Amino acid sequence: MQDANTVSTPACTTLKLSAFSGTSIPNPTLYRSIVGGLQYLSMTRSDISFSVNKASQFMHDPRDQHWQAVKRILRYLKATSAYGLLIKKSSTQLFAYSDSDWAGSIDDRKSTGSYALFVGCNLISWSSKKQRTVARSSTEAEYRALASTV
User: Fold this and answer.
1) Which PANTHER family match (predicted)?
2) What b/e sequence results for 68-87 when a residue is b if at least 16 CB atoms lie within 10 Å of its CB, and e otherwise?
């Protein structure tokens, strides 16, 4: 990965990962180890949280397309190695943002809800999780993401 080309985003916007497409990779232990390290890194790098969440959903049987997604995250990290959390003196107002992708998982049609909490301009908490139940509409998925934010 030292000589790999860098990318500007941690995930491909057109690729939908599935648990059943592609072939199994020869060394799933390496996949699990790297994704585990990325989960640890996502505690201070909120920009990779969603992509790592998606990659970690396939730990039981990683396929070649999942491995490609993990390598893309690593190429993104190579390009953004100077990124991190910056805490500045700012106002004490609390801001919360939430979003969801309705039926984003093509395997079980569950949505992924995310939120980010700020005090002034400082990011203090974030999350990206697959919702427990299938939402019947995009509005329902957004309401569930909003409820987890609150």
Assistant:
1) GAG-POL-RELATED RETROTRANSPOSON, RLK (RECEPTOR-LIKE PROTEIN KINASE) 8, PUTATIVE-RELATED
2) ebbebbbbbbeebeeeeeee
The predicted pLDDT at position 95 comes to 96
Q: In whole angstroms, what is the distance from residue 109 CA to residue 3 CA?
A: 37
> Which residues in the chain belong to E strands, given as ranges?
94-101, 112-119, 122-130
pTM given for the model: 0.84
What was the pLDDT predicted at 24? 95
**Mutual angle of helices 64-79 and 49-56, in 10-degree steps:** 160
Q: What is the DSSP letter of 108?
A: T
* Average pLDDT across the chain, whole number: 93
The length of the chain in residues reads 150
Cβ atoms 140, 121 nearer than 8 A: no
